[in-house]
């Protein structure tokens, strides 16, 4: 697994870099740097301050010379490799008035709930070595607008009715102040749309489809949790599927408290909204009634641990489970996908046509099961079959720390995590960069 992964990165590096270094040498350097990075991380965790004075790699000199701030320099040094992998890509982050972002943070949930990738990515990018403070040298322009933090007082869910106007007002703001939006009509500008139907900005699919992607975003790059592998009006725009946000601290805390022997006493787990008599909302049923079917068929099945109430400690149940059901909700994606992977429970994806995040980093077919929506009646049989055949193999694949890391947004960003994957994907879109010609002749 790790071996093929490294090969994968190596091939990518080779394609991306168009480098003159000999194959083997490059591979060796890559491994060395990778090891170096792990070492750096663990050592610096305990010996942060002494590290600065004792560690002085010649390789980092050019980068270090740009910065006087030691902690900043240290971050740069730790991810020298990133500069290669990202092909020297630079991202400029607009400094918007606080009404577009920071003001929303007064509500603590804004930076922790499942749509909080818009906040997490912003924070992680601010600390990334790919970030530039000079827009003239930028390849991409990130607009940090938090649209999912207007929590409804009635049901507690984010109201995103204001999303379009908030973003369009932010675009107006930057296009008057600086020439970069007008220069490209937004094609090198990056936005996050981390709620149900992404860049369509509505929670109900029929309305989302009717509204479509707003005109002012159509040229841009949208990082969205929504993705399907068929034509859909809410992805008629350059887009990257990103994972929903799960606080990495919560995962770490759960793992710390999990049984030492790694025993999983729950066979199949699901906790969440599961209506017995689903409401017909404008001709649509929540989760296409899949959850209702699961509840009806397996509610009394002892192999299934199904709960409909909210429970803050549900991660401790995931870590005890072998299979974690990830049925669609209003949209196909679910935060359960991330939590299952991060906590080593085999995700059982029940969401026809779903397009999953970062397929080049996460071998979804090897670490999860996919069950068709109209096959949930056979769920018990399917899971039993897997349990007696290839479950061990799937669980082994799932233990790969690289896979688990790819779906979490850390701050600061760590190599291979979700923000890193976003940057890697952007670096494959450098043909959109105004600076492109300069880069390719270097
Ligand atoms: C927040 O959402 C409500 C609808 O639930 C809307 O009336 C209000 O204008 C929104 N607030 C902002 C600042 O956009
Ligand atoms: C960008 O275009 C808009 C609309 O045409 C215009 O009002 C604005 O002044 C332009 N911005 C700059 C910086 O030239
Ligand atoms: C759901 O409601 C719509 C009207 O909003 C109606 O046309 C449709 O027949 C209803 N579906 C079912 C299964 O009741
Ligand atoms: C495990 O078996 C199931 C059902 O036979 C199959 O669909 C799946 O692709 C297999 N997964 C792996 C990783 O072998």
Please, could you describe this protein's structure?
It holds the Pfam family Exostosin_GT47. By secondary structure, the protein is of the alpha/beta class. The chain folds into three domains: 2-85, no CATH class; 91-245 and 409-441, no CATH class; 248-405, 3-Layer(aba) Sandwich (Rossmann fold), CATH 3.40.50. Helices cover 40% and strands 11% of the residues. The chain has 19 helices and 13 strands. The protein has helices at 2-17, 23-54, 61-64, 70-78, 80-85, 117-126, 163-177, 180-184, 205-211, 248-257, 290-298, 315-318, 335-342, 364-367, 379-388, 391-398, 401-405, 418-427, 436-441, and strands spanning 91-93, 131-132, 140-142, 189-193, 221-224, 238-241, 266-271, 280-281, 284-285, 304-307, 321-327, 346-350, 369-370. The chain has a six-stranded parallel beta sheet with strand order 2-1-3-4-5-6. Strands 10-7-11-12-13 form a five-stranded parallel beta sheet, with helices on both faces. The longest helix is centred in the first third of the chain and has 32 residues, at 23-54. Bound molecules: 2-acetamido-2-deoxy-beta-D-glucopyranose (4 copies). One 2-acetamido-2-deoxy-beta-D-glucopyranose binds next to loops.
Key terms:
binds 2-acetamido-2-deoxy-beta-D-glucopyranose, disordered N terminus, 5-stranded parallel sheet, transferase, 6-stranded parallel sheet, alpha/beta, signal-anchor, 19 helices, membrane, 442 residues, golgi apparatus, 13 strands, Rossmann fold
């Amino acid at each position: 697994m790790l071996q093929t992964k490294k090969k994968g990165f190596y091939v990518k590096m080779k394609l991306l870099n168009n480098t003159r270094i000999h194959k083997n040498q490059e591979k060796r350097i890559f491994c060395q740097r990778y090891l170096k990075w792990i070492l750096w991380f663990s050592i610096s965790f305990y010996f942060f301050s002494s590290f600065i004075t004792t560690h002085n790699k010649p390789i980092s000199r050019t980068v270090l010379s740009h910065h006087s701030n030691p902690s900043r320099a240290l971050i740069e040094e730790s991810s020298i490799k990133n500069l290669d992998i990202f092909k020297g890509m630079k991202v400029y982050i607009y400094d918007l008035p606080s009404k577009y972002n920071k003001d929303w943070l007064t509500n603590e949930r804004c930076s922790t709930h499942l749509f909080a990738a818009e906040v997490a990515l912003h924070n992680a990018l601010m600390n990334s070595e790919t970030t530039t403070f000079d827009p003239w040298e930028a390849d991409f322009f990130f607009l940090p607008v938090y649209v999912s933090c207007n929590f409804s007082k009635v049901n507690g869910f984010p109201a995103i009715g204001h999303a379009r106007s908030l973003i369009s007002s932010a675009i107006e703001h930057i296009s008057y102040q600086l020439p970069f939006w007008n220069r490209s009509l937004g094609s090198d500008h990056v936005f996050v749309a981390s709620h149900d139907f992404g860049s369509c900005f509505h929670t109900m699919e029929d309305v989302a489809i009717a509204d479509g992607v707003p005109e002012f975003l159509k040229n841009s790059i949208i990082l969205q949790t929504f993705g399907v592998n068929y034509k859909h009006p809410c992805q008629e725009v350059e887009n990257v599927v990103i994972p929903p946000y799960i606080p990495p601290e919560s995962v770490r805390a759960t793992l710390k408290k999990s049984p030492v022997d790694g025993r999983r006493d729950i066979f199949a787990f699901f906790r969440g909204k599961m209506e017995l008599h689903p409401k017909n909302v404008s001709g649509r049923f929540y989760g296409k009634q899949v959850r209702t079917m699961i509840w009806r068929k397996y509610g009394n099945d002892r192999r299934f641990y199904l709960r409909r109430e909210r429970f803050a400690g549900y991660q401790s149940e995931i870590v005890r489970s072998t299979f974690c059901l990830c049925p669609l909700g209003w949209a196909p994606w679910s935060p359960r996908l991330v939590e299952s992977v991060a906590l080593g429970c085999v995700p059982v994806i029940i969401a026809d046509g779903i397009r999953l995040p970062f397929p080049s980093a996460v071998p979804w077919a090897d670490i999860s099961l996919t069950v068709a929506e109209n096959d949930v009646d056979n769920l018990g049989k399917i899971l039993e079959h897997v349990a007696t055949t290839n479950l061990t193999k799937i669980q082994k694949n799932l233990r790969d720390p690289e896979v688990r890391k790819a779906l979490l947004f850390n701050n600061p960003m760590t190599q291979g995590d979700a923000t890193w994957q976003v940057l890697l994907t952007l670096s494959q879109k450098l043909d959109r960069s105004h600076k492109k010609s300069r880069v390719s002749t270097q």
